[in-house]
Amino acid sequence: MKITVTAKDGTSVKADILALPFNTKDLKKEAAKVLQGLGINASAAEDFKGSAGELALLYRPASGKGASRIALLGLGEGKTNDDYRKAAESLARKAVDMHLGVVAFDCSEMTQWSKHSKRSPEYLAALLAEGFLYGAYRFDRLKSDKLDKEKKKGADKPKTVAELVLAGCGEHTPEVEKGSDSGSIIGLCQNMSRDLVNLPGSHLSAEDLAEAAREAGKRGCFDVTVFDRKRIAELGMGGLLAVNQGSEQPPTFIILDYQPKGKHKKSVALVGKGVTFDSGGISIKPAQGMDEMKSDMSGAACVIGTIEAVARLGLPVRVIGLIPATDNMPSGSALKPGDVITTMSGITVDVGNTDAEGRLILADALTYAKKEYDPDVLIDLATLTGACVVALGHQAAGLFSNEDGLADDLFRSGQSTGEKVWRMPLWEEYDELIKSDVADVSNTGGRWGGAVTAAKFLEKFIDGHKCWAHVDIAGPAFLAKVGGKAPGGTGFGVRLLVDLLKGWS
Ligand code: BES
Ligand code: MN
Ligand code: ZN
Fold it and tell me: What is the pLDDT of residues 228-239, one digit of tens each?
């Protein structure tokens, strides 16, 4: 999709639809006037309230120039990031559903929006571009449309929006251009992450995930190195090898390394869980919902998307991505409950449950991160526990950190990007629950406090790192059916981490 910016008035831009955004306050004063100017009876908009993302479709008499479809688009109060992002998202959704090719968005009130929201036009434009790309996303690459009569007939109709025109930008045009460029990078990288999450096990193995990282590296001009099974064994990554033991496909360990040109203040290592499919292994999961476990590499997808975005934005932070990747399968050679394994750190683990596999592969990645890079900040992201979904639902990720400043920064980024995180404890009382009689630690802590005991397990492998955070994204990474539609992968964490890293730039 192309995003263009013009000073030209939206009403005269050649487009399939023109969106006229209103906040709840201006709506009362302005809407009637604007509609009359377009030859539309103002009463057509009577029921429109202007809440964020609300959309009312109207038609204006053909005038020869400009779009005949008019979308009244709600900005809510027009004060928060969400107001603008939601509006753009909902417009994009509508445009894709209606197969509209060119969408114009009236930005002539930019000065007002900027004053009202205390955000720069550049910042607001970034929100609009990001939201629009997010809303226009569809996962349809595995559809051939061979059985869909409607689609066959409408083969000439555009499948997705070809162009978004931010119109009426006047003197703000250069700033809006800048903002829409950076917002597009974030939106595109997040959608790339969503594709990875949505791809099923049949289409995304540990090696495929490595290939996706290499491609991101090419787009973002950063280094990607992939360790194969032999190298993983040489390094003694016993956790990753153990989880992979039952698989027909080899594991990979993927390293993404973005070094900014010039000086940087901080180095950050991002570790992402890359379980391409989690059957549970010998401790097999129930059939119900097991298909959703194709999303168990959402942490990895987030790391790849974030680093590509950071690189393409040219942020002055060193970012290293570390991804242990494998599927978790039962077979005659699979890891068994009760087995004891030795991780790269030398710490031995009593495997109480083979379905607690994420922490086994993350243990090695954390050890490797600390040993090889000793980064200023260490953050891991993982769809780690069902218990975290029970605690927070799909609305927020669980946050665990040994550093209050880092936790606060992550919380703030969560509020500003809408990818919310909520802090949970790492108190030592929980250590009791993961003690083992036969090994140094157990990978299961029993029924209660499952998200916390998982985090406590990971903490044993950071080797005293002073600025670590673990983000359990099991809830928000993947959304099951909502209103008949399955939105699937959300790309959760890309926006969150890019915002965090921007804040440190
Ligand atoms: N990948 C799952 C966690 C998960 C659950 C992610 C639901 C997304 C949605 C993880 O590997 C897992 O199976 N965890 C177990 C741990 C338990 C065996 C200690 C769980 O949460 O049940
Ligand atoms: Mn599992
Ligand atoms: Zn898992």
Answer: 999 999 999 999
